[in-house]
Amino acid sequence: MTFLQELTQNLKRNIREYGMYIALFVIFLFFSVATDGMFISSRNISNLFNQMGYIAVLAIGMTLVIVIRHIDLSVGFLAGFLGAVAAIALTQWNLPVWAVIPLVLVFGIGAGLITALMVAKFGIPAFVATLAGWLIYRGALLQVTLRTGTIIIPNPAFNAIGNGYIPDLPLPNFLPGLHKVTLLIGLLAAILMVISSISSRRKKIEYDFEVSSKNMFIISLIFMVILIGIITYILAGYNGLSWTAVIVLGVTLIYHFLTTQTFLGRHIYAVGGNPEAAELSGISVSKITYIVFGSMGMLSALSGMLYASRLQSATTTAGTLFELDAIAAAYVGGVSSAGGVGKVTGSLIGAIVMISLTNGMNLMGIDISTQYIVRGAVLVAAVVFDVATRKRGI
Amino acid sequence: MAVTAITILTRFDAQKILGENMSVPILEMKNITKQFPGVKALDDVSFKVNRAQIHCLVGENGAGKSTLMKVLSGVHPYSSYEGEIYLDGELQTYRNTYDSEKAGIAVIYQELALVPEMMVYENIFLGHEIRKGINVDVNETIKQTVALLKKVRLEVNPSMKVKHLGIGKQQLVEIAKALSRDARLLVLDEPTSALNETDSENLFVILRELKQEGVTSILITHKLQEVLDIADKVTILRDGQSVTTLDNNNGEVNEDVLIKHMVGRSIENIYPDREKKSKDEIILEVRHWNAYDPRLERQILKDVNLKLKKGEILGITGLMGAGRTELARSIFGNTDGYRLEGELVLNGEPISFSSPHKAINAGLAYVTEDRKGDGLILIQDVKANITIANLERILTRGLFIDANAEIRDAREFRDSLDIRTPSINQLVLYLSGGNQQKVSLAKWLYVDPDIMILDEPTRGIDVGAKYEIFTIMNQMVDQGMSIIMISSELPEILGMTDRIYVISEGRVTGEVMTQDADQETIMRYATM
Ligand SMILES: Nc1ncnc2c1ncn2[C@@H]1O[C@H](COP(=O)(O)OP(=O)(O)OP(=O)(O)O)[C@@H](O)[C@H]1O
Ligand SMILES: [Mg+2]
Q1: Which residues surround the ion ligand 2 when the cut-off is CB under 5 Å?
Q2: If you measure from the C-alpha of residue A117 to the centroid of ligand 2, how many angstroms do you get, rounded to a whole number?
Q3: Which among B374, B377, B404 has the least Cβ separation from residue A207?
Q4: What CATH number did the domain enclosing A249 receive?
Q5: Rounded to the nearest 10 degrees, what angle do helices A285-311 and A263-273 cross at?
Q6: What residues have CB less than 8 Å from A172, skipping those under 6 apart?
Q7: Tens of pLDDT along B363-417?
Q8: Pairing relation of β-strands B499-504 and B507-513?
Q9: Interface touch B1/A264, C-beta < 8 Å
Q10: Is there a domain that residue A100 lies in?
């Protein structure tokens, strides 16, 4: 097989995945041109990541919920409510930040487990159970903010989560204008990526397994390194990596490994692919349901804190429509409501796509009404593309 | 995707067909080639069917039978294959199944396409309701339904919900539905694999009657005796090529000839020999086992007592619906939520399994009867399906899946069970029925159980693969495993087991040593 043949075959086989990256690239290109480069400026990209954070973590959790054939509509107001709880814990209970964060995450897990109880134990459809949750958490959010209205959070450590950046080396003369620690992290990430790819390929060859040709491998490595390089360089040009970006990347990485490399991930996708078969294979469907909704609750808590921290306050409307943004991001990222299909990395990209649209159109001064229509159209287009590419070859 | 289908051609009524030139074949498929990524499913196949005949299509698993019929019915649209299809001498270019249906092709799959919650008459006229103004003309619909049901000799109330009918009757409803669209060419893809003998015979009677009325049938089956009984012509496919077409009416066809063409060699012995050496040690005992279905408020198992000896193949047989599958599932973690009474004794210890997980840990495995429904995860690949019930085997540090070990193990099973797939990364969805069954077996062999319950293990499996599966079963018991084999096929129960329990209406009505048993005895117990 010639290199070109392999390349086209590879492209064809993974069209769905590459399609998403290509779409993202086109969106970036379009907005960069349309805004005279303002969109792609370090400052804006950095800002974009921060805007995306609270939706991205929800989208990641939502991916798994949809994979196991459920839905969670309550996450938006749960996030809003738990953000308010965090604010109250900081301002009224006077708890330190290091205690508040895990506490609120645990609350989130608890809320998720209650949903799971409704779904797994009482057999209530997730749509209905979480619609009830939507109402309840909305009410709860209004109640806790009733007396005070918006709760201002005067805690710099907490507010850094949504607004701060990782510290830099105090070397003002070395590489001025660039964030050195960010560069270093990017470099390390690239090196790690190259080493692990090479060693996994080597191991495959050792076992006499099929691998892509050497040229193909090298090209894809170079491509990945360049990509990491560009992102790092752009971010380093402003304040470096934000804490939000660190959190989102961390969550993505953990969930990516959990879903692709562990038995837990296998079990989740098995339950999504065929619950009866999974149960008869010794997998407890209800246990998986608890885990997935528990994780969704935890990520809702995280999302709520990211948002509260970003606004430096808990508002009465926090969390409005988050759930729909998260669901949209997951679908743009390629999950299927038929169950068993969808990647967390896809949903991250989906979240970036959706936020880029908002951000880019804002920069272009496009009216909010048009923005909704465009985002709706993109959502439909993504899913149509998804369905069409999946159908091929059957 | 579906293994089994009935396809019907309509548009002209019977008189018109009979009036047409009889020498033009009703269907001619010329030089059909169909390629999937990594697989050439059909390789220059030509296939001709004469009017008002019953034409059987046989071949090994993966030979391309279903694919050929999917090409015919437009599941694989015109541009996706090479070659031509002629219907009554006219070139056909279907873009989808709707087109073929309009041209007279209606497809009935083994996984029947009926809506369980709807009534019989609603199902039959679904999609082409008889209208009076904007309303459905219920009276006229029922009247026509009664006529159609009479044609397929089905005596049920047209207003009954389909879900209350047995599978055999549902199949007849499906045929009635096809007839309601003036069908004239039926294609049945393994219709009898889920039917008991009575239902199968009933079906054949109807096919013969339809033949008299000018309806042509194409029938796919792995049961060669059926071919001999019913076929006018039989076409054999092997590895995506049409080997030959034989005429069943002039005595040139018998089982050996068919097998020889199908597998390219003759198979002397359908049931491989085994040195029977089961010990008297009892590994599993079921005592006074009662099961109630709380939803139907019905008792489905009544005081069942049975013993499984170490190293034996124990047969459990009976008519469909006798409660065999329910027995297996109630033991294996009771996922259907029956209310159970009675005792399980494993290796002398009383035990109960509240979930399949517990049953698996105790050394049991259960290969389900319905591999697509609750056996396999069709949208996952071969290797993931093989390892799913025992991921512990490839975990590192108790959490991470060792991808290389997984590939290595999956390949080992692919080779030892001869699973025909372009790669272990192929989705199970794309495998032929027989190879899917082998994947199910591989999955449970991977668990390395002490007791393997096989529920209809040869459903939809060709003679060669059956032989292979029987050989594997023999190897399993040689290695000390004990097998419970549930089957409605009396010949294979008699050919493979050491001892047989017969179940009828939830009760054990007979226990016989296989060497003393014959079909009549078993049938007598089964209808007791
Ligand atoms: N959609 C598909 N994608 C890829 N391969 C396919 C697809 N459909 C069928 N195949 C392959 O084509 C070959 C023929 O399959 P087909 O289902 O026609 O076999 P069959 O003769 O009906 O077998 P069986 O008796 O087991 O039902 C098999 O190797 C199968 O794996
Ligand atoms: Mg088939």
Answers
A1: B 3, 66
A2: 42
A3: B404
A4: 1.10.3470
A5: 110
A6: none
A7: 999 999 888 888 999 999 999 999 999 999 999 998 999 988 999 999 999 998 8
A8: antiparallel
A9: no
A10: yes
Whether A200 maps to a domain, the answer reads no
Residues of B with CB under 8 A from a CB of A: 1, 36-37, 332-333, 335, 355-357, 359-361, 366, 368, 373-380, 384, 388-389, 391-392, 395, 399-401, 403-404, 407-408, 423, 429-430, 443
ipTM value greater than 0.85? yes
Q: Please indicate whether residue B66, judged by its CB atom, sits closer than 6 Å to ligand 1.
A: yes
pLDDT in tens, A246-282: 999 999 999 999 999 999 999 999 999 999 999 999 9
Task: Output the CA torsion B437→B442→B448→B453 (10° steps).
Answer: 0
Number of the ligand 1 atom closest to the C-alpha atom of B222: 25
Q: Which of A279-283, A349-353, B75-79, B178-182 has the lowest mean pLDDT?
A: B178-182
Closest atom of ligand 1 to B433 CA is: 26
- Ligand 1 contacts CB of residue B464 (under 6 A): no
Residue A370: other Cβ atoms inside 10 A: 11
Ligand 1 atom nearest to B37, measured from its CA: 4
Count: domains in chain A: 1
Name which of B327, B343, B347, B342 is nearest B282 in CA terms. Answer: B347
Residue B456: strand, helix, or coil: coil
Domains of chain B: 5-263 (3.40.50.300), 267-363+451-457+482-528 (3.40.50.300), 369-448 (no CATH)
Residue A59: domain span: 17-164+242-391
Q: Domain for residue A376, yes or no?
A: yes
Cβ contacts of B415 on chain A, cutoff 8 Å: none
Instruction: Look up the pTM and report it.
Output: 0.86
Residue B151 vs residues A319, B144, B155, B210: alpha-carbon distances, Å: 62, 11, 10, 8
DSSP states along B390-438: GGGGGEETTTEE-HHHHHHHHHHHHHHHT---S-TTSBGGGS-HHHHHH
Q: Which residues pair with B36 in a beta bridge?
A: B39
* Residue A64 maps to a domain: yes
Between CA A88 and CA A143 the distance in angstroms is: 12
Of A207-211, A264-268, B336-340, minimum mean pLDDT range: A207-211
